[in-house]
C-alpha cells in the first residue's frame, strides 16, 4: 500500500515489526489513541502475551477514552491492565507551568517502573517522529527513565502511523488526536479535578452535538471556556450558539466563547511564546 504522498505503508509496517521484535518483553503505555494503539497491536503480534498494554487512569483521562481503550484491547486480544497515576498529587503538576507534561510523564513512568522491573520489560511510548519537533517536555522524562519509542526508531511520523493502522484495519486509523484533559487548562492556572471535570462534560456535550473534533480550553481559573472546532464547523457552531452556550454553562463554566481561528492542536503553547504546529490557522 502506497499513499498518495508516496508513503509505503508496508515498508513502515515491516520496520516497526522488526523494531518491536527485538524486545523480549514490553509494557506499552496505551492511551487508546492512534499511536499507542499501533504499538500495542504490533507489539502483541510480535511478542504475544509478553507485550502488555497499560492504560494510565487519572482525572486527566476522559471516561470515554478509558472505555474506548478497554474496547479496543478486547477486540484485538491484547493483554491489558490499568494503573492509577498520581500526577494530580504532585504540586509541580497542579501548578501547571510550561513543564507540566514533564511531571505527567514522570508520574506515568513511576507507575509503570515496578511492573517493568518485575517482568524485565521495556517501557514503550507512542511517540512518533512528528512529536519530536513539538513542545513536549514529557520526552525529557521518558529519556531520563529509559523508555523506548518504537515508532521513532522505525521512522514513522503521524502520516505513516495512520497509513500502517489502515493497512492493519485498525479502528483507530482516523481517530482524532485526543490529548489529556489537562492540556486544555491555560498555563499558570491550577489543574484541579473540578476544572478537568468541567472540560470533560463540556467536550462530551459538543461531541453529542456533532462536533467530534473539538477542544474546550479553560481560562481564568476555569471560569471561561474557549471552544475550538475545525474552521469548516464554525458556521454550524454559530447556528447552534444558544445550545452550545447552555451546555457549556451546565458543565460548570461561567462564560463561553468560540475561537474564530478554529481548532489547532497545541494551541495553548502560544501562552509560552511557542507557535502552535501548523502555522497561524490549522484545520486538523
Q: What characteristics describe this protein?
A:
7 strands; single chain; three-stranded mixed β-sheet; 11 helices
Structure description:
By secondary structure, this protein is an alpha/beta fold. It is 42% helix and 12% strand. The chain contains eleven helices and seven strands. It has helices spanning 9-21, 34-47, 63-75, 91-95, 100-119, 138-144, 150-153, 158-167, 193-208, 234-239, 241-250; strands at residues 26-29, 51-57, 79-84, 122-124, 215-219, 224-228, 255-258. A four-stranded parallel beta sheet has the order 3-2-1-4, with helices on both faces. The protein has a three-stranded mixed beta sheet with strand order 5-6-7, with helices on one face. β5 (215-219) and β6 (224-228) form a beta hairpin. α5 runs parallel beside α6 (138-144). The longest helix has 20 residues, at 100-119. It is globular and about 55 Å long. The chain starts with 8 loop residues before the first helix and ends in a 26-residue tail after the last strand.
Give the secondary structure arrangement, pairings included.
Blueprint: H1 9-21, E1 26-29, H2 34-47, E2 51-57, H3 63-75, E3 79-84, H4 91-95, H5 100-119, E4 122-124, H6 138-144, H7 150-153, H8 158-167, H9 193-208, E5 215-219, E6 224-228, H10 234-239, H11 241-250, E7 255-258
Parallel strand pairs: 1-2, 1-4, 2-3, 6-7
Antiparallel strand pairs: 5-6
